[in-house]
Amino acid sequence: MSDSSPSLSPMQAAWRRFCRHRINLAALGFLILLIVLCVLGPLFSPYAQDAQDLELKAVNISAPHWLGTDTLGRDMLTRILQGGRVSLSVGLLATAVAACIGVTYGLISGLAGGRIDAAMMRVVDILYAFPFINFVILLMVVFGRQFWLIFVAIGAVEWLTMARVVRGQVLSLKNLEFVTAAKASGASFRHIVLKHLLPNVIGPVIIYASLTVPGVMLLEATLSFLGLGIQPPDASWGVLLGDGSQVMQTYPWLLLYPGLFFSSTLLALNILGDGLRDAFDPKSAAQE
Amino acid sequence: MIRFLLSRLLQGVIVIFMVITITFFLSKMIPGGLIQNEKNVSPVTLKAQAEYYGWDKPLIVQWWKQIVHYATFDMPESTHFRGRYIDEIIASGFPVSASVAVLALSIALSIGIPVGAISALKPHTLEDRVSMLATTTGICMPTMVSGPIIALVLGLHLRWFNASGWQESGDVVLPAVTLGIIYSAYIARLMRGSLRETLALEFIRTARAKGAGEIAVVFRHAMKLACLPVLNFLGPAAAGLLTGSFVVETTFQLPGLGQFFIAAVKNNDHQLTMGLSVLFAALIVFFNLLVDLLQAWLNPRIRLQA
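Structure tokens for the assembled complex are given below, as produced in the milestone run.
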């Protein structure tokens, strides 16, 4: 392949492959724009997210309210951007929680090998059969729907596949010659793990993490849609979709606009995940 | 084979045991508890009620009683609907969730498999691009977006079906379509990827070299192997659908198991919460086992390992 000249690190080569498809860059650009909008938008908005204009009630697109207002006269654009903050941060934080647990578990299991590995993987098999959504719903009721709990609960659910991925990677790496060479030259265990194993595990972790983010955002939206996640007056896209679906017959835009934001974000995240997979795993890209 | 089945059975028992334990202690931690929810209850009533349900006993005794209930298949009484046993409550909701699930899966398979297969057989053609565009859009339309839109357009505007409720036989259609769309999108993508990978394998070239026709190559040789990832996806998907989709049952107001679970948690109905969690876990275990057996049957290279 022309771009894998020896001067490129695996990361740089992957980045080049990623850039070869314009749709990947478009998805990345869209997500960056969205994050900037969600972070900065509410700061510059003339409306607070819970400020009501009682005379307006629900109106569609108009000059002062670019995306209209909801049934309580709150500015929809502000609420959607504020909700985006919540949805995106839950998506990223819960994925980070899942990645931390999964990478640690997978590393230990893969490095330990033998019986410990077999036992740890059996635990993962058993956990796969758990009705996790039920536990998350129960947790939400028990601990009173706190924001931090949502991403800890979701993160604690989503680490299983990550652990399997990392463990498989470690198993295939740990007996390779470069690791043996490092051991022979007297490198400490810590050095081998941090400098030799982790950098080689990072690729699959990034791929899988990027595919986890949309799943996590969906789970958060499900909880909030059911009234078990983020609580009003705070907004998340799940809350807005739930509210919108209650009044969709009279005010369909209250469902439509948050839906458009949510769906296009999921679309961009899926494209990004596929793009990263192809970039880090040239074999799958070669088949395209 | 027998060793495999025994070890999976043991694994299933462990899963159910842990699910009972976790659900028990989580529901005991719900603040307030069932009795405080009612106002102006006299202490005498409270005591009688606690005695009736055995809440005055130590936690460990209560927990053991739960284990015995499920080990002997003797289902307890609901703690919210007095005098009704949880198995009859679950039996009343199961047909609702199950009929939606069966129709949704049929829709998903009858759209997803052909669309994915055609895409894989004609890569980079117009058909491929259109179907991939459609499936990508489908995946990005989660049920909390598509469900209300379908209810609005097909239910309230066109009036083809009722937008919500469970009175007529036609009420199954809209929820099933909502779920069928997103599942067919997943299946089509899986099918396309795996069929393309399979068609590039050596044994397909051998089959072609021997003079097998294109139809025989695809249906007799490639499809068997290419279906494995779809099957892998279908196991958990079927379990999830049978136990009721929380979002779709809420959107269309169906009296199915998903709604029952949310109501049970909110009503502090510990026994029904427990029963549904155990049922969900048992279905996941069962479908995972079924998938493993089917995979071994379709692909002789897969060995069932204990």
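Chain B is about 75% helix and 0% strand. The radius of gyration of chain B is 24 Å. Further analysis is deferred to the final report.
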